[in-house]
Structure formats: C-alpha cells, structure tokens
C-alpha cells in the first residue's frame, strides 16, 4: 500500500480562520485593532505581536476560559473534518503532519473540541504556555528562539520559523523523502511557498485560491523551479474531492 504523507498548514487551511486574529475578534474589537496596528508596523514577528497583545488581553481582565471558548467556536468546516477522516479510513497508513505558525495551545484546543487530538502524528508550531502565577495569561513564544542563530531562509519565511527547514528536518527524522510515495501539502500563506518548493514531481500542493500562496506560485513558481503538482481549491469540499483521488 502506498505511503502517503499529508502536511497541513493550520490557519485558513485546516481551519477556516486565522487563529491569532480570531481570539481578539471574539473577545475585544479594540485589541483586534491593536493587533492590526502592531502587525502593520511590520517590525515584529507574528508570535511576538500576538504574545504582546495577549498580555494586553490579560491586563483587561479576560480569563483563560474565555480564550479557550473563543477557540472552541472557531470555524472548522465539516467538509474538512470529513476529508481527513475519510482519507484516514480509506488509506489507513496515511500520516498527517501539522506545520503551522499558530501555537500549540490554540491548535490543541481546537483539535480537542472537534475530537481530532490524535489526527496529527506531530504538530510543528510555536510553543505556548499558561503563566504559572497568572493562570489566565498565555505566553506565546517562537519556534526558533530569538537567541538561536537565524535560519537563513532565502524564500521569505518569518524569523521564528522556516517551514521548508522544518519539513526537511521532519523528513530526516522520519525516513527521508524517499520513505513516502506521495507528499501532499495543504496551504494558503506566503510562508507555505518555501516547503512546497522543496517537494518533488508527483507530490501534490493543494493551494488555496486567491490567497498569498496562490500569488507566489503564479509569480515565482517557474523562477524557483517548483516541481510539485499544484491543485487549487477554494472550499473544504474541494479538498475532500482531491483527497478522494489520492
Ligand atoms: Mg495559513
């Protein structure tokens, strides 16, 4: 039986939202604005900006349960859930890997809500933990700490994580690329371009239409020597259809 690896970006790929923005959109419009202003300032890495705004949320008196409840109501399309569970049932030895610039508390909470805690064999993302003294304060860190040497990615990954390096490192620890008959990658963001550039002919990139990744594939794909088969999708139902042809 062929060995399939399915790699999922999380925000706007596995789920139908941006986890970082969503928590503030549910709880506080003024803090959602603060997040936007900080992001458009452009000088900080995404997890740093979210971490800073989480501290503001705590200072305003929001509780851990409110943050968790916000995450539990974040939209996961039923067709996406059906897509992964259907594939798992049909091709039982499919391995699912999550590669995300969100954080482990957000992703873990959402997966638990949907009874999908055991779907991914590994979740590669930013670390997060609740403060020991202030139980409603969430700290979000960087996958690659600011104190580590920079990853040196030339494709444009953020300072906290080079998704291409992360995928290569996971491969090295899991039998190498040759251990997998086909690797499929579901993504939407500009930082999903780096890993798909490293994928092989015959692998599948499921690229969400009209998002940043789609633009990069069109504009830089040929120049960067993209080899992977690109399959565009807009809604989760189309991912389900594509998975049925794996
Ligand atoms: Mg995304």
From TrEMBL:
Highest taxon, organism lineage: Eukaryota
Molecular function GO labels: metal ion binding; phosphatase activity
Residues annotated to bind Mg(2+): 9, 11, 188
Pfam name, any one: Put_Phosphatase
Keywords: Hydrolase, Magnesium, Metal-binding
Cofactor field: Mg(2+)
Active site: residue positions: 9, 11
Keyword Magnesium among record annotations: yes
Protein name: Phosphatase phospho-type
Organism: Dioszegia hungarica
């Amino acid at each position: 039986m062929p060995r399939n690896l399915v790699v999922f970006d999380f925000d706007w790929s596995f789920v139908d939202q941006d986890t970082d923005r969503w928590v503030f959109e549910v709880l506080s419009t003024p803090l959602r604005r603060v997040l936007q202003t900080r992001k458009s300032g452009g000088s900080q890495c995404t997890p740093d900006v979210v971490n800073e705004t989480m501290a503001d949320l705590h200072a305003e008196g929001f509780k851990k349960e409110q943050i968790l409840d916000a995450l539990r109501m974040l939209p996961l399309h039923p067709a996406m859930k059906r897509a992964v569970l259907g594939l798992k049932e049909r091709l039982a030895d499919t391995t699912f890997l999550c590669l995300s610039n969100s954080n482990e508390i957000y992703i873990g909470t959402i997966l638990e809500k949907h009874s999908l805690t055991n779907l991914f064999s590994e979740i590669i993302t930013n670390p997060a933990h609740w403060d020991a003294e202030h139980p409603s304060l969430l700290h979000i860190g960087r996958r690659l700490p600011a104190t580590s040497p920079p990853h040196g990615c030339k494709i444009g990954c953020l300072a906290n994580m080079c998704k291409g390096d992360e995928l290569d490192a996971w491969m090295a620890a899991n039998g190498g690329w040759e251990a997998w008959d086909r690797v499929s990658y579901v993504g939407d963001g500009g930082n999903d371009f780096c890993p798909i550039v490293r994928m092989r002919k015959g692998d599948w990139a499921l690229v969400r239409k009209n998002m940043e990744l789609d633009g990069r594939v069109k504009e830089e794909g040929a120049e960067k020597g993209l080899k992977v088969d690109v399959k565009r999708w807009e809604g989760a139902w189309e991912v389900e259809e594509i998975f049925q042809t794996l």
